[in-house]
Design goal:
Residues 4-57 form the Myosin N-terminal SH3-like domain. Residues 71-286 form the Myosin motor domain. GO terms for molecular function: actin filament binding; ATP binding; microfilament motor activity. InterPro entries: Kinesin_motor_dom_sf (IPR036961), Myosin_head_motor_dom-like (IPR001609), P-loop_NTPase (IPR027417), SH3_Myosin (IPR004009). The structure is a single chain. The protein has 286 residues and is of the alpha+beta class. Among the domains are: 8-65; 159-276, Kinesin motor domain (Kinesin). Helices cover 31% and strands 22% of the residues. It is built from seven helices and eleven strands. The strands form four sheets. A five-stranded antiparallel β-sheet has the order 4-3-2-1-5, with no helix packed on it. Strands 6-7 form a two-stranded antiparallel sheet. Helix 3 (141-155) packs across helix 4 (171-184) and helix 5 packs across helix 6 (268-276).
């Protein structure tokens, strides 16, 4: 690992996690390297080490930074230095530019914008990604859906899209848009087919309020947190037209029925029942 004067790097920071810096001094004296870094906040950091190998014995060594042209790459695997601060900075920089999706090889990373971004999922956007290879356009949920759909059509094989993330990451919404994409890119041009697909899509979406009532709860991080897993199958016929779907639920957090953290709630259904009761019954129930 090289730390010549002028080398751009990342240095651990208590508040920001990592902060950018530049090597301003690199001396070797009596078997010890003496580094001096000028951080972006103006602070100067001095480091003494007998090795430039960043391991458990030298945890405070800076981490090399990528050139600016790579820092907002749409695929993290193209980074010259693939390390924690480089990944976080690339995702953050793209997020600040309104680009919430980033590839990491075959994986799509999504940063929840916590804002309305309906323009990203418009019918025009669906048409843009239809029949396109993944690397032809910006990273997007529709590119992943398109790739799965095309493999199914051409290879005649089942496809699986795994949507994972922490609570509040946007998994349920992402799955909804993937399903909407499948329902919108059918190659059938007859009107009846389009109506049928719309009905199936509506029926699948109509199950959400029911499942959320019994399986979602308010948590400290998400007012509508899914406390169960969902396995959704979309069924196509030999003409690759959607004919139905199956939904399977699993791993429900049953312990929430009898215990909830102080700042969290039980499942929505209990509050919905109480909301629908008359004042007299509520009073009798205390």
């Amino acid at each position: 690992m090289s730390f010549e004067v002028g080398t751009k790097c990342w240095y651990p920071h208590k508040e920001q996690g990592w902060i950018g810096g530049e090597v301003t001094k690199n001396d070797f004296f009596e078997g010890t390297f003496h580094l001096e870094l000028k951080l972006e906040d103006g602070e100067t950091v001095s480091i003494e080490t007998n090795s430039f190998e960043n391991d458990d014995d030298h945890p405070t060594l800076p981490v090399l930074r990528n050139p600016p042209i790579l820092e907002s790459t749409d695929d993290l695997t193209t980074l010259s230095y693939l390390n924690e601060p480089a990944v976080l900075h690339a995702i953050k920089k793209r997020y600040m530019n309104g680009q919430i999706y980033t590839y990491s090889g075959i994986v799509l990373i999504a940063a929840n914008p916590f804002d309305k971004v309906d323009h990203l999922y418009s019918r025009e956007m669906i048409q843009n990604y239809s029949s396109k290879r993944k690397d032809e356009l910006e990273p997007h949920l529709f590119a992943i859906a398109e790739e799965a759909y095309r493999f199914m059509v051409h290879e005649k094989a089942n496809q699986t899209v795994v949507v994972s993330g922490e609570s509040g990451a946007g998994k349920t919404v992402s799955a909804k848009y993937i399903m909407r994409y499948f329902a919108s890119v059918q190659e059938s041009n007859n009107r009846e087919g389009e109506v049928e697909m719309s009905q199936i899509e509506s029926q699948i979406l109509a199950t959400n309020p029911i499942m959320e009532a019994f399986g979602n709860a308010k948590t400290t991080r998400n007012d509508n947190s899914s406390r169960f897993g969902k396995y959704l199958q979309i069924l196509f016929d030999e003409n690759t037209t959607i004919r139905g779907s199956k939904i399977r639920t699993y791993l429900l957090e049953k312990s929430r029925l009898v215990y909830q953290p102080e700042t969290e709630r039980n499942y929505h259904i209990f509050y919905q029942i109480l909301e629908g009761l008359s004042e007299k019954i509520v009073t009798n129930l205390n």
